[in-house]
Amino acid sequence: MAGDWFHEMHTPHVGIELELGQRLFKGQSPYQMIEVVETLEFGRMLVVDGAIMFTARDEFVYHEMIAHPPLFAHGNPERVLIVGGGDGGSIREVLKHDAVHSITLVEIDGMVIDTCRKYFPDLTAGMDHAKVEVVIRDGFAFLDDHQGAFDVILVDSTDPVPLISESKTGPAEKLFTPRFFEKLHTALKSGGIAVFQSENPFFAAPILSTMHSDLRRTFRVVELYLANIPTYPAGLWSFTFCSDDVDPHLFRHTSAPPFVADLRYYHQKMFRAALTLPNYVRRFLAH
């Protein structure tokens, strides 16, 4: 199927193109359009509402960086909640931490899980681990029943708006609202940490600025950190670290378990480096 190309627009004037080998799956769930395609450069790729969720070649960056910084910074993360994350990659990384006793994955769209189980079986293998509970439910509602329950919460959601050229919003829109931030705060134990995937800072500065302003009304500590993900907009992605008790700038690795040596992106000095932001990001976050 040479010559077939996937296009994702990041603004009306810029985007990314990937040449495809074949289109493997396309299905409409009650919430979103889900596709799996084979790319010639990055291997299999999950696409939701026209936006790249991950590729087989570079997913490790996203999943290592959403999981390991908050888990190490916490120190003893026994109970972990993942909101979204139906591809299983965040579960894979969280399971590497021996301190974790239980992982609850709350995914609103069961088709995401079913699709990833079929086309990305290595990524979803952790869902069958004894420590893992998979719940098909709206994460927004789930938090109401779990106050003070979790040490770390990872918000591994889709984007609030699936495509820049469309007016519709996605199922993750309410996960970027002050009401959700309050629910999340209440679901954390004392000393807890929440991390959000929080968009590309170059093209989505207004979303990030508003998000951080709202989060600061709920959490004492709100800090952005960055990672390089080649198939994401501008090759750059952000994560937002939130806590009342833990300042990531003060965290120091005193030691690291053996698995860190096998990670492909995160290492003991990476988190401090990721917290060092370019001036243009610092400035819009300060407003």
Provide an overview of this structure.
With 287 residues, the protein is of the alpha/beta class. It folds into 2 domains: 52 residues, Spermidine Synthase, Chain: A, domain 2 (Roll), CATH 2.30.140; 228 residues, Vaccinia Virus protein VP39 (Rossmann fold, 3-Layer(aba) Sandwich). Helices cover 26% and strands 32% of the residues. It has a 7-stranded mixed β-sheet with strand order 8-7-6-9-10-12-11. Strands 1-2-3-4-5 form a 5-stranded antiparallel β-sheet. Helix 7 packs across helix 9.
Topology:
Blueprint: E1 4-11, E2 14-28, E3 33-39, E4 43-48, E5 51-55, H1 59-74, E6 79-84, H2 89-94, E7 102-107, H3 110-119, H4 121-124, E8 132-136, H5 139-142, E9 150-156, H6 178-187, E10 188-197, H7 205-216, E11 221-228, E12 236-243, H8 270-274, H9 279-286
Parallel strand pairs: 6-7, 6-9, 7-8, 9-10
Antiparallel strand pairs: 1-2, 2-3, 3-4, 4-5, 10-12, 11-12
Helix pairs in contact: 7-9
The whole-angstrom Rg is 18 Å
User: Could you name the CATH homologous superfamily of the largest domain?
Assistant: Vaccinia Virus protein VP39
What is the CATH C level class of the largest domain, in words?
Alpha Beta
Count of β-strands: 12
How many DSSP H or I helices? 9
How many structural domains can be distinguished in the coordinates? 2
Helix content: 25-40%
Largest sheet: 7 strands, mixed
Please name the CATH topology of the largest domain.
Rossmann fold
Please state the structural category: alpha/beta
CATH architecture of the largest domain: 3-Layer(aba) Sandwich
Note the overall shape. globular
Order of helices and strands: EEEEEHEHEHHEHEHEHEEHH
**Beta-strand content estimate:** 25-35%
User: Strands of the biggest beta sheet: in what spatial order?
Assistant: 8-7-6-9-10-12-11
What number is the mean pLDDT? 93
CA(first)-CA(last) distance: 48 Å
Instruction: Enumerate the spans where pLDDT stays under 50 for 5 or more consecutive residues.
Output: 162-167
